[in-house]
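Structure catalogue
Derive tokens from sequence
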Amino acid sequence: MTSSEHKYPRRRLQVCQNLKTDRLILRRPVADDWPAFHDFMMSDRSTAFGGHRNLGNAWRTFASELGHWEIFGYGMWAVTLDDEDTALGLVGPWTPPDWPETEIGWMILSDKAEGTGIATEAAKAAVAHAFDVLGWETVVSYIAPDNARSIRLAEKLGAVLDTAAKGPKAYTLVYRHPKGQAHV
């Protein structure tokens, strides 16, 4: 078995595609979520995520979100309010082949949703799912050093900066989520 076959087996994991929290539904993203993703990636708010401001790059990034589900059977969920279907953010497992470790990532697409606790609620559910359902032994979140909101969220979830760990880019901060800790 090659190293890529070991890390990414051909058989996709069969996992719950939707999660529910007190206020939120975390569902598999769909093509109809493109407008919300597009608007976010074309805004100044996306600078911590590469700030594409490039339609082609934004489209390819969104397509990779959809494709991640097809390849692995899981991925970042579109976060919606319980009584609506508009994607407010993307939160969840992210494991592209060049990522050093298994990540739970997050981005809040809607500026109106920032500061409402949606990211905390969704990320808490995603971290628990990664440990309890996906069976991950470790969970990290890769964060740009200037993304203060994401750093605060990681720390709120109980994650600690792991200066010995390597991120996908040399400057990326790696926050490690403790297994079995009661989050938030």
User: Anything to note?
Assistant: Residues 3-127 form a domain with the Aminopeptidase fold (CATH 3.40.630.30). The mean pLDDT is 88. The helical segments are 3-7, 34-41, 55-72, 118-132, 148-156. The first strand starts at residue 19 and ends at 20.
